[in-house]
Request: fold
Amino acid sequence: MTKSIGADLHTHTNASDGLLSPGSLVKQAASSGVNGLAITDHDTMDGVDEAVKMGLEADLLVIPGVELSTEFISPVLGEQTVHVLGYFCDPKNPGLSKHMAYQRDNRVNRAQEMVYRLNQLGIAVEFDRVKELAAGATVGRPHIARAIIEAGYESDWGKVFDKWIGNDAPAYVSHRKLEAVDGVEMIRDSGGVPVIAHPYYDFHGRSLDLESMLPLAKEAGLIGLEVYYGVFSASEHRQYANVAEKYDLLATGGSDFHGDGVQEGVYIGCSLCPDENFRELCSYANAGD
Ligand code: AMP
Ligand code: ZN
Ligand code: FE
Ligand code: FE
Reply:
């Protein structure tokens, strides 16, 4: 097959809040024709080994990744949630592994508190069901969303977030987050390549205040910006490609696929990191820190 379409560098498995096992995700990606894949689960790298192994079997280059939740206090826009992707990190690095374990624990308490709030609001979902849906993986709001839908309170995924569990909705509880700059540093310290994910939104309906954040993040070792993301259009991509160029950041890309039917229009490879940039990203890993 001759192909030069690019790599999908942002996907989730059932090691966090995706629907597919790492092996199934890689198989599906291989048949979709992408040139490379990264799995970037929330606060865990537990799916990486299985994914890399399946990549060898399915003849697809699979690289290890993670997605950390951080926050940036913008002098212009206030609190913003910033997701930092890390590629090629060492999952055994003490700082990173301690942080991921802490976050996974913390997320269980946070989910419990969110379920309590939902119950107060008349949504009778059970925490045990949320835990069952997560099945030992990193617990996230998508598990709570599934429980709400399953219990028949809503049918639309977006509405669940708008009305109940989105960052500005009544049942939302924050989980402790690193500062964005510390997240970038943590990825660097674990031998990884840090990239700011989806600059298009801050979970409060605004885009990230990149002009304030990027100079600081670059100083902390930021390498890339996720320009080609999700369902955004070519003209929106161009806007962020310009920002990446201005700050001399590598423009990466990915779908943020969580499973079929989770988000309309999102499928493996719907947004891609250009092959040339993917090669450059891999060269950072090969060169070490
Ligand atoms: P958490 O890390 O538990 O706060 O959950 C974050 C995840 O929830 C994101 O990665 C998305 O998959 C999903 N999510 C958050 N906000 C929304 C939203 N407004 N609409 C749809 N999905 C969302
Ligand atoms: Zn997710
Ligand atoms: Fe994200
Ligand atoms: Fe994601």
